[in-house]
Amino acid sequence: MALLEVSGVSKRFGELRALAGVDLRVEAGQIHGLIGPNGSGKSTLMKCIAGALAPDAGVIRFAGRNLTRAAPSERARAGLSIKFQITSVLPSLSVYDNVLLALQGRDSLVSLLRSATRRARHEAVTAALARFPLIGRADQLAGALSHGEQQWLEIAMALATEPTLLLLDEPTAGMSLEERRLTGELLAPIKTGCAILIVEHDLDFIRGVSDVLTVLDQGTVLDSGSVEAIQASSKVQEVYLTRV
What we know:
This protein is an alpha/beta fold. The chain contains 11 helices and 10 strands. It has a domain of about 170 residues: Rossmann fold, CATH 3.40.50.300. About 35% of the residues lie in helices and about 25% in strands. α6 packs across α7.
């Protein structure tokens, strides 16, 4: 059984058909890349999986549970975490406190009022920052980080809750070439404990990190398979030559 199973998911916005019966499987221990031309439905599919949008039809199962109509908070408790394209770090808080705040979302109001969670969460915060080149910046304001470092911080925040599936929507947008290379190196070991579904326009980057690629076009799955199989796919080559 796959960790994530998307079956026949469709979504319309008025006359616009964003998704038309999409099927997708993400296995544990896998980085699964989701690519396609602009307007192919990638971000809409991610939002349906995360619970930010409700699909018009279809089923979304995660770890064997039907979460099609579940609230985002229920999906998070089940082990699903997401980082959207636009960074949402709090620039006036320290790097440390941004991660702490992400963790405190699971704490009770009583423990928060007693300020007991900061001590209890210290090891988890430092462990999350240690995964990225941020541990030495823990006391600095998040707003002082570069754009790429803020992207890393938000990924660290998403991983701090120890999810079993992480959704990443264009995590390297706005990064330098060196930051993109480092991001690929930092994500690779994460999949052993947390599968990753990643949307990315940088084809060189996503080919380098993904175990499996799924290609969307006009709201449908055009092809899915290994990186090598997708690179050799005549259907995919046609789309990227004519529509990208």
